[in-house]
């Protein structure tokens, strides 16, 4: 039986690279995004959802459960960045960042992890950020949400140890995605999304007795 991976935000950027990597390796891939995409590999199931809304997170979880008897890997990737500073960013920015970058992962993990616990097997990757460990002056609520995401990952790691479920936090620096569209810098100055997908595959492929708890990735020349 093919193994199954669930990847949120899988139509663009880092999520899309992860979807394509695991699909190529023969996984059944289940993904979601706010907008539809008709150009996904054949072994990918797609569900349209805005994961900043709890009801849509739970609808996606129901779709996953109706599509596969088990989930082997969960990648909480959904998130986005709004620049600004805490003292002057628009009202509601923190709520938007927390709902999208943290609550989506919290609610989906709670909805799917029960079967992993029963099986005593599974792997959860949480896409955090170097903004989870570095305070950027224009990061504002984004940094707050990503610090919280890393905290959730650490707690999950401790909670799920007894059930042989591995948890890894991925902390990428500047990655060449739509978030950097229009920036006049060479692509070589960024991490490639494919490199993050390769790192996740490598971590997953390690023996189940070993876990990479945190992986920090930066462009060779450092943060932007």
TrEMBL record:
UniProt entry tagged with the keyword Oxidoreductase: yes
UniProt cross-references to InterPro entries, sorted A to Z: NAD(P)-bd_dom_sf, Sc_DH/Rdtase_CS, SDR_fam
PROSITE patterns: ADH_SHORT
Region forming the signal peptide: none
Keyword Cell cycle attached: no
Gene3D superfamilies, sorted: NAD(P)-binding Rossmann-like Domain
Pfam family, any one: adh_short
Family membership: Belongs to the short-chain dehydrogenases/reductases (SDR) family.
Name by which UniProt lists this protein: SDR family oxidoreductase
Organism: Arcicella aquatica
């Amino acid at each position: 039986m093919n193994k199954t991976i669930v990847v949120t935000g899988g139509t663009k950027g880092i999520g899309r690279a992860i979807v394509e990597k695991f699909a190529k390796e023969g996984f059944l891939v289940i993904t979601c995004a706010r907008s539809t995409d008709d150009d996904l590999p054949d072994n990918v199931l797609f569900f349209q959802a805005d994961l900043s809304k709890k009801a849509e997170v739970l609808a996606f979880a129901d779709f996953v459960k109706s599509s596969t008897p088990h989930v082997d890997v969960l990648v909480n990737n959904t998130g986005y960045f709004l620049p600004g500073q805490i003292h002057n960013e628009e009202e509601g920015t923190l709520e938007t960042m927390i709902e999208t970058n943290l609550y989506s992962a919290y609610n989906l993990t709670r909805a799917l992890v029960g079967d992993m616990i029963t099986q005593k097997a599974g792997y959860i990757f949480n896409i955090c950020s170097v903004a989870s460990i570095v305070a950027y002056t224009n990061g504002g609520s984004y940094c707050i949400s990503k610090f919280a995401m890393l905290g959730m990952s650490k707690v999950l790691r401790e909670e799920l140890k007894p059930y042989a479920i591995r948890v890894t936090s991925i902390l990428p620096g500047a990655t060449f995605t739509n978030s950097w569209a229009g920036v006049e810098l060479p692509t070589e100055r960024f991490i490639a999304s494919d490199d993050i997908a390769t790192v996740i595959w490598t971590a997953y492929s390690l023996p189940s007795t070993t876990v990479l708890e945190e992986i920090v990735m930066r462009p060779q020349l450092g943060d932007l």
